[in-house]
Amino acid sequence: MTAIQEWWKTGACAAAVVLAGLGAIAQAQEPYRLPPQEIVDIVDAQPTPWTSASPARDTIALLQRESLPPVSELARPMERLAGLRLDAETNGRHGPRSVVGLSLLDIATGEERPVVLPENVGISNVSWSHDGSKIAMVVTRGDQLSVWVVDVARARARQIIGSGVNAVFSPLSWMPDGETLLVSLVSPQRGPRPVRSRVPDGPVIQEASGQESPVRTYQDLLRDSDDADLFAWLASSQLVLIGADGRNQRRVGEPGLYYSASPAPGGEYILAESIRRPFSFLQPWYRLADQSQVLDLRGRVVAEIAQQPIADSVPIGGVITGRRNIGWQASHPARLVWTEALDGGDPRVEIDQRDSVWALEAPFDGEPREILRTEDRYFGTQFTNIGETGFAVEYDRDTREIRRWLVDFANPDTEPRLVEERNNQDSYADPGDPLTVRNQYGQSVIGVEDGFMYFAGDGATPEGNRPFLRRVSFETFEAEEIWRNSGEVYERVISLVAPNASSFLTSREDPVTPANLYLHSGDGEVALTQFVSPHPQLNAISRRMITYERADGVSLSATLYLPADYVEGDSLPVLVWAYPREYNDAATAGQVRGSPWEFTRISGTSPRFLVTQGYALLENATMPVIGDDPETVNDTFIEQLVMSADAAIDETVALGFGDGERVAIAGHSYGAFMTAHLLAASDRFRAGIARSGAYNRTLTPFGFQSERRTFWAAPEVYFELSPFMHADDINEPLLMIHGALDNNSGTFPIQSERMFAAVKGNGGTARLVMLPYESHGYRGRESVLHVLAESIDWLDRWVKPVEDPRGEDDAEDESDPME
């Protein structure tokens, strides 16, 4: 028995009792606080609209947004069921609105036409018809969800369903005719809402049958039969077809727990996928038992395609056995395509071919035909407008190799042709993504025009991203670059206007101007929008990409922000904001990603706000963890973090804006995990800020992030990689912030509560802020402003002063646990 196993067996129980007591020490609820007024003004500024291009390539939808909602919207009653957060009053997802208005921009003329809607509404599920003549959407008013359709030519909206929309899953989709919608309504047969019984029917019982059933740390799961009944009541829906003019509404089949209903490209069938009872108390909705059926337009079952049991025995990182990822072939009127695992769904199995791809076409009563076998895990096919060809993708999780094959689904005996093979993390070699068009069925497919496809990509280079547009031969796959971003702007292609790329749309921004749309053609370029910065007071902030090396020669990079009034040669307090990522080799880990010419967006709880308070910011400072064996890459996690942190701090000194002393480390989620580790293992930082993190890896025993080993296979690794176990080494001030309703897998709120108790119990300096009603990210206005106020105050107290506030003795009496 190892020392770690001995500790686990003999000490864990006692430690849990002690920490349970410590968690109750010195708690107090304080009112929300505000940061400086200049920051409040920036947070409250109206954000620029989101944009969506029409399939017809003649119109842009401008989706108007509002600034942050009040916490009172987050405080609406919430039902946490089967991994979902639902609002029983609306019968949809819980959460505040984000889109509040709509206007239409004509690409040819630049004319913008507002679409009139009722006041104080929220807009969601915005969907273009296949020909671009209409837009369907769900409109929320109070507790009512309704379906509206916009006539694009007239810029007029009309309500076609006034109430009873079920938005627990996907509420609407267009039929291929572009004149009919498939809508999910509340089941008319569901009866009154189930009432939770005060006296239970009996205990909740779970049983293991001797089969491996690794369970991730999912949250918001069903707890008992009352939860199960409420989930079924909310999720049960009736599919209906209704004309875009609001006429001819008719039911499609019987009510069911439908989580997906997708029309066949030809419009004669519907693939209906639904959840089956009994449910599980250990799995989220997408791992519950389900069935896939083909329905005709009257709702009659044409074919049973698959029935899957509860996915409670899927290996970590694996897939279900049997038919999975069932969907329509975009280039055929009625052919289903699915995948089946050849390795039992287990990525640990050594096998020559891991997946097979199958197809079955209407009337679905014949034998399915095997189309393709892949050496590695199959990740889907993107079809083209040439016959029934498509680009199939497979991925090797060990080597991170991605391979893309051109496959003819009409003639599967034809040998697939290799189009792309590279490390998926090799950004410099990324050929980009193919641009799409609509085919004869209204489906989005890769466009091939006169023998050429068009690819748009980020264009990562050692100097930063320079997006491109390339013409690629469909016959030879040879590429020719026809446009690339240049100058002191960041511009990327978002859509073709002409199929042969003689005209195309781009999004252009620079450090002081938000993204605007431009039309490129033979006549030059024309600005279609003139959005201005919502926070012009930040225009003078300095921003640039920097690169440097750590001790083992690995190249690192970061985006450097300096205050508007910075004077060259001055020494500033520095905030390093980072998030660790794993790589197979140093070459890909050292690649530069991002651009110095992007707009200086600042919203939510962005660390960029600290620049307004006199701090230098190293944002997205790379913290690569490199190992050619993905099973053991984390064995040197801490050592590599420390090397990267040392290099970042040394670079601030070399560039002259840092003194190497007044430095803080901060991050969110895995970045918070990193922050706690660096405070425990390094003496280079004065303080840290950790948001929504996980600190005790024994609470995520079946893996975390990229760690594939379980706790029982590698207990020493779980112990060493738990900052909680090193809480006695954290002798720098640590501010921890966490959403009280965090539903992210692994980052239970108790992670921060127990970490705070551990630091406090060992005599450390810490502050824990639990945000009511917030999840993994923070959305409420009061919460966001409070986080900024806390962060500024913490750094002003512990980092900004020239003299270390902890005193000379405390600052110098730190031993390096890495030595």
Automatic annotation (TrEMBL):
Entry keywords, A to Z: Aminopeptidase, Hydrolase, Protease
Recorded GO MF terms: aminopeptidase activity; serine-type endopeptidase activity
GO biological process, one term: proteolysis
Record-linked InterPro entries: 6-blade_b-propeller_TolB-like, AB_hydrolase_fold, Peptidase_S9_cat
Pfam families per the UniProt record, alphabetical: Peptidase_S9
Peptidase S9 prolyl oligopeptidase catalytic domain location: 647-800
Protein name: Dipeptidyl aminopeptidase/acylaminoacyl peptidase
